[in-house]
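Example 4.3 (complexes with small molecules)
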Amino acid sequence: KGILFPQESETRERKSLDGIWQFRIAPRNDPELGFRNEWFKRPLQETGEVTLMPVPSSYNDITQSKEIRDHVGWAWYDREFWIPKQWMSQRKIYLRFGGVNYHAIVWVNGVQVAEHAGGHLPFVAELDAANLSAQRTNRLTVAINNTLNQNTIPQGSIFRPTATRYPPGYFTLNYNFDFFNYAGIHRPVYLYTTPTSYIDDITVSTNLQEDGTALVIYNIETVRASAALFHNDVNFGWIPTVNQDGLSIVVRLEDKSGNIVATGTHGIGYLSVPNATLWWPFSMVKKDEQAGYLYTMVVSLQNLAKLDVDVYRLKIGIRHLAWDNTTFTINGKPFYFRGFGRHEDFDVRGRGIDNVMIVKDHNLIKWTGANSYRTSHYPYSEEIMDLTDELGIVIIDEISAVSIDGFGQELLETHTKQMRELVQRDKNRASVVMWSIANEPQSQKTEAGPYFKNLFALVRELDKSRPVTIVVAQDYRTDKAAEYADIICINRYYAWYSDTGHTEVITASMIQDVHNWINKFHRPLIIAEYGADTVAGLHSSPQFVFTEEFQLEYLREHFKAFDALRANTTLIGEMIWNFADFMTGQGITRIVGNRKGIFTRERQPKASAHLLRSRYHFLANEIDGY
Ligand code: E9O
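Answer. The structure with E9O bound is encoded below.
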């Protein structure tokens, strides 16, 4: 079952359900109240006191209530909506959520239509017209739960102290990942339609032949209102071409000006594109050329009269990835990652998607001269991925498995399900060049070996066109997971978490450490994190931890190591932790959040942003000739 992003076309309609909804949380000491009293059966405001809640957004920072900010358990949303009456026949109606953290149950007019676990991936429900009305408003109710346990990804646990000094019913959700567990309907909610026979999924991969011809390999899955007839094709075997309704698939590839550059007529096949304009990362093209060139693949399901029954337009970039034990190339050129670890995080909205911030962040990324980032520590919104495709920003696409431990069968199942959903969602994206299956797991444990061996095999089965990585923070001697990776990512904090303050240890420690990894595993390696908390405006000379001067010195010492390693090892990238300051849970090592950003949470540069910018521009010039 596909999860194509809902779009409008000559055969499809879409309505946004974003806006201001009604909201209330379940009482902490009676978490099941909403289910017992069936809050989904009537307007939420009839069940008790409600508050207004914007969608999309995290709910945590919207109100003045500490109880809502720190809520653990069920939270309820509802709103009314209209269905246009022409939607009620001869088409299918769907409801799609881009991402709800963590667990969601959805009702329409009191009838459950969907349930989903996993905070950062989309899910869709087909709605039954018999349960909808075009004469009156319909009601959409969503219950969400942010409770994590040992088999959710990421993990968490409920802490219930027994000491009598605690108020009755006191408990907390503990987790050891370093970001606030924001909750809410974080991404857009859409109603949309397709015809009854429709394009359900499209899978595309691209590569370049020896002679330079570009190939776009595609597989289109349709759902037909009546059974398909199959015919045998010498090249492709049994293919559904025409069904009893006379439907067939037609594919055409259009360039940016709308010229048709290739056409195809089967559900499975390839298009060869002579003189293709390639998808290049930002700064690997000349200044007047365009990075991130996207073609539009127009897929249509046509009837015998050649009229479109369904049309879906997919933007694709043509690029060729290759990797071995020493290199990673894009379109035949070695690629050196200069980028960031990031978060979907902003003041007030929390993890809620916001076009203002998305565009601002990518302008800042381009300003620094970075060419890449990792979606630490969970899949980012599809709206963000559209931008990275378009701007030529290279992405290491990470699943939500941050700091995992335990490695039992049930956890593996959750992890596998999320990886499947991620690959299904992002498989066609040019900007995604690598999957990251975890960040800083307890990979020194014996059980981690077979666990990750399994998972790497699964991801390679799902997608052979991209390398698979894991981000580890263990010692090279004890780690049990990295050996299965195509490319190894490590996080290192010399002079921060160890030898705190002693920037003089950084360069040599880093060089030795990377040599150890590469000599043992023989893989391309990326430093996926290094960073120092820095309070913007705090100064000290000579430098002292937490000051801007310290962050500058910390960066400079790293750059020396990276340059030495770039010259004579298979180091293929440096990504600073973090792009911007971001919110964490409350704790004595975090002064209102993690402050390792080179930008503040408000997106203003610290001194380090200017230094990093000159570094990344220098690398762009030296490596890409930009
Ligand atoms: C994960 C990230 O989410 N890595 C952490 C980041 C941090 O700032 C966090 O925000 O704390 C760093 C992990 C450090 C592991 C290396 C420890 C070395 C001990 C000697």
